[in-house]
């Protein structure tokens, strides 16, 4: 049942707002143009006294105000003081954006404040309280990969009480971690080699009643959406479909193909082996030369065999330095007369693993030297000759070895295989793997487990090159994220980065023309098409960025509190004065700034805190993400007489900062299309510009905004202004 | 279990603690954070940019702060230190001491108190590179956005100017230290790290040569909200340096100081070289190193910086750093291990890539825990229900701290009974 909306506007006079603007005039605007009659002022709206006043107003048995505009500070501050239960609150920022950044009592300052109230009075009328999207939700966690990472993920998810399905492609669990002879120390004092810890994890997983294990199995396909994902698991020709809620991708890595390293002797001699083969030799009990079965006296380890090489792997494989140090100790422990040489570019034993490096280094039979290995050749007696440019001595050196171990790097399983095999319109894999050498994470510094597929979390070596102890920790983190995903789906909430959001896209399908822009542009692959080509949402895949809302030419995608119409109504509510003298430096041009609410908006707030001055002719409207920018807003604004529009979004491209990965980039793409249209209409395309702003660049904003206004003045007034 | 026994305490509101708290709360836990500073965000809030994306840490923090604001399952205390813990997993009694802020929740961050205040204090947020008033906000993006009064520098005769200046009744100079006691089921320790006191390395000139600074000071110099509004200027004469040296492993990988590698310093110096080059294309950076450690995908960032013609990498251990008399310039003697030669060069400014020391080295937790001689917590020896994250257990970068904290969140949840 629709409850009748009762509006109230609460205007704060504190923090200099009262000194900056004329309240009498402002109230008139709210009443006459905003058409809201219940208006209250307070000297300190965030005070307990003002809060009590508002709480009294929203009592259903009293005034029953249920739709509020609070014109005060930024919504980023005083969030508890100005949050009211079960009523709609729109925060209109006239502190940072007006009082703190404009000349007090100036005419244009007053105009600016009045425009903000016009916009937010319009907004509150269109906006509504969210109602969560509820679906059935299965809370099973699917873990793909039964190596160190997957075992940890499965075990901890199950220990937390969630059913787990673990799928391993090999016949045995354990992956690479179970095949090694010893493990590098993962705890203080970091000096003694350990038994592989994976062995115990395998037993724990096999004995856990909450974990169902599939071996010799693969995930053939996953359909559906988070909370309701149908995983088709193929084992020995049989396919079983299991309902799961979220997925941990822990498919691990393969060793780099050593046959591509013939310059390092691989394939030329049996006595050139990879580090993985060296583990197998050690595990068999005795390290011997494959060619003649003799114990080697001189073993050379060649680091970065394939890694850190633009011709092979353009990254460091992270585990190989520690592994070679460990294997050098194998050689020494088996035969105290044998010597191990490690030829490296840089020894990479970060953190406390440095202590293990020192331990290995203290063994007089382990020789470490920085060298660029130029090649490995086979000498006359079948012995191996390692040629190097020894960068420590400056001279070229060549020395003989009985056995050469190539410290080959790793290649993530997601490099050439989608692994998750999602039955999604946008394709079966994780899209980001294409951009990052097969590795599967996005936003990897702050939010490392995120992928661009909702409720699918990458862990272990598919995400980053890493060591086994690190991978085991990593699996636990990804399990935590998967648990959150099913819990949020069950509660009808979004997941990262809007993990609190209960709104969801609700398209008015009658007007859909099946143009497919939304299905193509959604960064998270949330929209599918039926057999007729009509899009439909898989809401639980959605992150609520509004990219579909921005993409839709029919403007049919809406959230309860965010829609094309809501922002459009704000634009249409503006008062755009005529320009009597367009050459007057202070002529009242009007510019709209559409700003990313996570980055540009806080930057503007910081500029406010620093009391920087902004051109008073710009009105800022926060967007969830630049991806939600709909081009109709340009015509809404231009037809209203607005002279220009500045879009302030996040950096895009390789080092993108957009929390929705693609939002600002897609906005830019749309803008390029818009420019053509504007030019055709005889409207200068420069009137609408997108710039990339970081949250920390508050100091640059006055100049950026000022320069844009200047550019608009050069272009001249919007020719539609007069109509 | 009742609600209290299922609650999780996170000690430390830096990036590891915040992440642990948020990930646990979003997976269904009740969480309390205690943070000893007046703001959340910890060490990363002081960074100009993260490597390798060169993005501002406040961007991710903003998301995290919003998650805190929107989540009813999280509460936090700033200026709060845990002084006592007793009990066992599922039933810990915690005592927290809250230092008076002298500013209450009515604060609107209007700055009137700071304008009225006459006393000054060294700005610890900027590592002493400038001063703030005794009434101050730690930095512009501080969360919560509230001022603090440092009573230790208040002069008795100031006439309580701040009190008169505040129109919001937000200042309470009679605020007393508070002691809070509550029960929790599990504890996550996220005390973070301190930069190594590099003045202890006598040969590296810190504290003696004015233009020898630390890497963390460099972060503040580069930041727009730092002491120089983002201009990199050397301390002695506020001149823009044209030739800057970075001394790697300043304290780290050194038996006399820190035997371990501090993990972040190679990437941090490579990143800081980009600050210099971006702000002044004529400025040249020289990095003296033992090994360049840019593990995993960081390698590509290393290549990008290495290929910049204005960045010079010299493999060599720096033996001596000292001030050139009269000029403020800094002389470096190093051994170039690639050529074996002694390198003697003079720079306008020198940045010491000082290492990382766990906060537990100087102030251990009020619990009988096992530490390494370097002050790191030995995870394997922790009692049930207690978890350590991030740099508590060893030097780490932000990415790995976040991974670790997310995993600890789940382990902590399990220890308070899991999904029941």
Give a description of the structure.
The complex is a heterodimer of chains A (723) and B (420). Chain A folds into five domains: 129 residues, Rossmann fold (3-Layer(aba) Sandwich), CATH 3.40.50.920; 190 residues, FAD/NAD(P)-binding domain, CATH 3.50.50.60; 155 residues, 3-Layer(bba) Sandwich (FAD/NAD(P)-binding domain); 43 residues, Alpha-Beta Plaits (2-Layer Sandwich); 163 residues, Rossmann fold (3-Layer(aba) Sandwich). Chain A is built from 19 helices and 30 strands. The longest helix of chain A is centred in the middle third of the chain and has 23 residues. Chain A is elongated and about 100 Å long. The two termini of chain A are 41 Å apart. The relative contact order of chain A is 0.10. Chain B has three domains: 173 residues, FAD/NAD(P)-binding domain, CATH 3.50.50; 54 residues, no CATH class; 158 residues, FAD/NAD(P)-binding domain, CATH 3.50.50.60. A seven-stranded mixed beta sheet of chain B has the order 13-19-14-15-16-17-18. In chain B, α2 runs parallel beside α3. The longest helix of chain B is centred in the C-terminal third of the chain and has 18 residues. The model of chain B has no long low-confidence stretch (mean pLDDT 96). Chains A and B meet through α6, α11, α12 and α16 of A and α2, α3, α8 and α10 of B.
């Amino acid at each position: 049942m629709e409850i009748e909306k009762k509006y109230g506007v609460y205007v704060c006079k504190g923090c200099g707002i009262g000194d900056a603007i004329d309240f009498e005039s402002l109230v008139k605007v709210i009443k006459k143009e905003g058409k809201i009659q219940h208006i209250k002022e307070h000297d300190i709206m965030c005070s307990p006294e003002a809060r009590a006043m508002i709480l009294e107003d929203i009592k259903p048995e009293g005034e029953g105000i249920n739709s509020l505009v609070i014109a005060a500070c930024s919504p980023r501050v005083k969030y508890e003081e100005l949050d009211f239960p079960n009523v709609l609150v729109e925060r209109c920022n006239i502190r940072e954006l007006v009082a703190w950044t404009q000349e007090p009592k100036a005419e244009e300052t007053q105009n600016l404040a009045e425009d903000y109230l016009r916009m937010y009075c319009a907004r509150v009328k269109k906006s509504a309280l969210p109602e969560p999207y509820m679906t059935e939700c299965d809370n099973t966690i699917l873990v793909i990969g039964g190596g160190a990472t997957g075992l940890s993920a499965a075990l901890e998810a199950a220990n937390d009480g969630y059913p787990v399905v673990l799928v391993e492609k090999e016949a045995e669990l354990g992956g690479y971690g179970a095949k090694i002879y010893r493990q590098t120390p993962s705890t203080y004092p970091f000096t003694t080699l350990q038994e592989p810890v994976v062995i115990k994890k395998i037993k724990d997983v096999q004995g856990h009643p909450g974990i169902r294990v599939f071996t010799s199995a693969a995930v053939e396909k996953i359909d559906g959406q988070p909370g309701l994902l149908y995983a088709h698991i193929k084992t020995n020709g049989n396919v079983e479909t299991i309902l799961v809620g979220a997925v941990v991708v822990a498919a691990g890595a393969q060793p780099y193909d050593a046959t591509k390293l013939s310059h390092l002797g691989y394939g030329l001699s049996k006595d050139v082996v990879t580090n993985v083969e060296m583990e197998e030799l050690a595990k068999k009990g005795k390290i011997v030369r494959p060619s003649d079965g003799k114990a080697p006296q001189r073993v050379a380890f060649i680091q970065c065999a394939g890694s850190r090489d633009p011709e092979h792997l353009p990254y460091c494989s992270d585990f190989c330095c520690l592994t070679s140090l460990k294997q050098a100790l194998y050689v020494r422990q088996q035969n105290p007369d044998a010597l191990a040489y490690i030829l490296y570019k840089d020894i990479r034993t970060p953190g406390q693993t440095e202590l293990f490096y020192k331990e290995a280094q203290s063994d007089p039979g382990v020789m470490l030297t920085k060298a660029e290995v130029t090649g490995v050749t086979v000498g006359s007696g079948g012995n191996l000759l390692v040629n190097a440019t020894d960068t420590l001595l400056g001279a070229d050196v060549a020395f003989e070895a009985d056995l050469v171990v190539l410290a080959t790097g790793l290649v993530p399983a997601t490099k050439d295989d989608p692994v998750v095999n999602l039955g999604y319109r946008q394709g079966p894999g994780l899209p980001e793997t294409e951009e990052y050498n097969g590795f599967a994470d996005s936003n990897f510094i702050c939010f490392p487990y995120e992928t661009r597929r909702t409720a699918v979390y990458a862990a272990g070596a598919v995400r980053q090159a890493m060591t086994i102890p690190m991978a085991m920790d990593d699996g636990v983190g990804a399990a935590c994220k998967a648990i959150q995903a099913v819990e949020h789906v069950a509660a009808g909430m979004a997941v990262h980065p809007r993990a609190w959001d209960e709104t969801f896209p609700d398209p008015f399908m009658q007007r859909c023309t099946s143009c497919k822009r939304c299905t193509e542009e959604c960064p998270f692959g949330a929209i599918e098409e039926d057999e007729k080509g009509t899009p439909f949402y898989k809401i639980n895949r959605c992150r609520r960025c509004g990219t579909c809302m921005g993409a839709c030419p029919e403007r049919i995608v809406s959230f309860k509190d965010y829609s094309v119409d809501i922002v459009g109504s704000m634009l249409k509510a503006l008062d755009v004065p005529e320009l009597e003298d367009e050459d007057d430096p202070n002529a009242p041009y009007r510019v709209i700034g559409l700003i990313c609410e996570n980055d540009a908006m806080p930057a503007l707030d910081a500029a406010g805190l620093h009391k920087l001055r902004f051109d008073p002719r710009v009105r800022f409207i926060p967007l969830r993400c630049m991806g939600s920018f709909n081009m109709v807003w340009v015509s809404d604004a231009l037809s209203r007489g607005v002279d220009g529009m500045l879009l302030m979004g996040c950096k895009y491209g390789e080092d993108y900062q957009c929390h929705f990965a693609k939002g600002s980039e897609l906005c830019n793409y749309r803008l390029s299309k818009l420019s053509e249209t504007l030019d055709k209409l005889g409207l200068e395309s420069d009137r609408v510009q997108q710039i990339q702003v970081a949250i920390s660049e508050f100091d640059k904003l006055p100049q950026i905004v000022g320069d844009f206004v200047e550019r608009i003045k050069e272009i001249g007034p919007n020719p539609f202004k007069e109509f | 279990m009742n609600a209290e026994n299922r609650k999780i305490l996170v000690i430390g509101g830096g990036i590891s603690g915040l992440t642990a708290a948020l990930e646990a709360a979003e997976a269904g836990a009740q969480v309390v954070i205690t943070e000893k500073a007046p703001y959340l965000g910890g060490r990363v809030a002081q960074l100009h940019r993260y490597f390798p994306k060169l993005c501002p840490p406040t961007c991710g923090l903003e998301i995290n702060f919003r998650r805190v604001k929107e989540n009813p399952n999280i509460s936090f205390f700033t200026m709060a230190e845990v002084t006592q813990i007793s009990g066992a997993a599922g039933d810990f009694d915690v005592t927290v001491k809250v230092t008076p802020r002298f500013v209450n929740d009515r604060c609107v961050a209007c700055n009137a108190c700071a304008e009225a205040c006459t006393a000054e204090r060294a700005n610890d947020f900027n590592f002493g590179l400038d001063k703030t008033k005794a009434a101050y906000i730690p930095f512009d993006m501080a969360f919560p956005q509230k001022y603090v009064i440092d009573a230790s520098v208040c002069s008795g005769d100031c006439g309580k100017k701040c009190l008169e200046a505040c129109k919001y009744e937000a200042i309470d100079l009679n605020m007393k230290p508070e002691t809070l006691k509550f029960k929790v089921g599990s504890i996550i320790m996220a005390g973070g790290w301190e930069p190594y006191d590099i003045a202890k390395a006598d040969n590296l000139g810190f504290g003696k040569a004015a233009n020898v600074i630390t890497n963390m000071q460099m972060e503040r110099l580069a930041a727009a909200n730092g002491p120089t509004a983002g201009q990199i200027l050397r301390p002695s004469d506020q001149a823009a340096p044209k030739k800057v040296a970075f001394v790697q492993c300043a304290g780290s990988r050194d038996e006399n100081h820190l035997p371990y590698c501090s993990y972040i310093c190679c990437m941090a110096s490579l990143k800081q070289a980009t600050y210099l080059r971006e702000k002044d294309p004529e400025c040249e950076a020289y990095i003296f190193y033992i090994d360049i450690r840019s593990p995993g995908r960081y390698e590509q960032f290393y290549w990008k910086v290495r290929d910049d013609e204005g960045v010079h990498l010299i493999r060599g251990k720096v033996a001596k750093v000292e001030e050139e008399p009269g000029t403020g310039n800094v002389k470096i003697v190093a051994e170039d291990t690639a050529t074996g030669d002694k390198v003697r060069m003079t720079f306008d400014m020198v940045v010491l890539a000082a290492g990382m020391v766990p906060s537990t080295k100087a102030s251990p937790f009020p619990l009988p825990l096992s530490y390494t001689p370097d002050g790191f917590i030995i995870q394997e020896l922790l009692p049930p229900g207690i978890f350590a994250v991030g740099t508590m257990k060893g030097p780490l970068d932000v990415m790995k701290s976040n991974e670790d904290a997310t995993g600890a969140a789940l382990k902590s949840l399990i220890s308070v009974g899991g999904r029941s």
